Amino acid sequence: MKNKYATFFLLLAAIITIFLARAWLASVIAVPRTFEIFDILTVAGALLVLLKGYRDLQRTDWITALILGAIVGTETMFATLFSSYPFLGFVRDSTGQAWVLGTFTFLVTLGGLALMRQGGPVRFHISDGNWKGAGRGVMIGLAVGLPLAVLNIFALQSTQGRSIDWQNPLAALLDALQPGIFEEVIYRFTLWGLLLLALRNDLPTHAVSAAGLLATLIHGYAHFDDLFLQSPLMGLGMGAALIALWGVPPLLLARRRGLESAIAFHWIQDAARFLTGF
What we know:
- With about 280 residues, the chain is mainly alpha-helical.
- It has helices at about 5-25, 35-55, 60-80, 95-115, 130-160, 170-175, 175-200, 205-220, 225-230, 230-255, 260-275.
- The longest helix has 30 residues, at about 130-160.
- The chain is globular, with a radius of gyration of 18 Å.
- The protein starts with 5 loop residues before the first helix and ends with a helix.
C-alpha cells in the first residue's frame, strides 16, 4: 500500500536535490540562480496547466495577467533603486530583462488563475471583480507587513553595518512593485497551486498546507545562494529566520485574504528597504 506521504517526501527530496546540485555546480562553473531555476520550472508548469485549463479562464483573467506583466516589465526597465540579476547570466540589459520577467509574469499569472478556477489554494479577488475583498486584503497585508518592514530595516542595519541612506520616496514605492508582484505571483500563487495538484490525491486534508510549506521553503532559501557556498549552516539558520518572520505571514495572508494581501505585505517590505537605501 502506498504511503500517503510518499509524494510529499518525493517532492521535498527533489527540491533539496536541486538546491544541493546547484550549490555544488556553482563552486565549479557558472550556473543559474536558484530563483531562476524555480521560476522556469513554475512557468513550465503553468504552460502545462494552460494546455488543458485555458478554457476555464475568464476575460478578466487575461486582462489581469496582461496588466501584471506590463507592470513588472515596465518596472524592470525603468527601476532606479535596484537592478535585476542578469537572467541566466546573459540577458543583462534592462530591456531584455523586462521582456523576460514581464512575459514570465503574464504566463505564470494565467497559469495561477487557471489553477484558481480549478479550486486552487489562493484567490485573486481582482480577477473575480471583488474589489472590496481585494481592498480589504491589501489593507490587512500592509498592517501586518509594516512592523515587520521596520524590523527588517533594523536587521539590515545590523547585518550590513550600514546606516540609513534615504532615497526618493516615489521611486521606492514604484520600484517595490516589481518584486512584490513577480515573486508573490510565482511562489504564493502558481507554484503553490502546482504543488497542490501533485499532493491533492495523497493528502486530501493536508495538501494545501503541505504544498504551501514546500513553496515557502523554496522561496525562503532561494535568497541565500551565496551564503550556502560560504557557510551552509549559517544559510540554513538565516533561511529559517527569513521564512518564520517574512515567509509564513504572506503565506497565511494569501490563503486567508487573497493574493493581493500577500503582494501588499511583500511590497511594503521592499518599499521600506529601497526607501532607506538597502
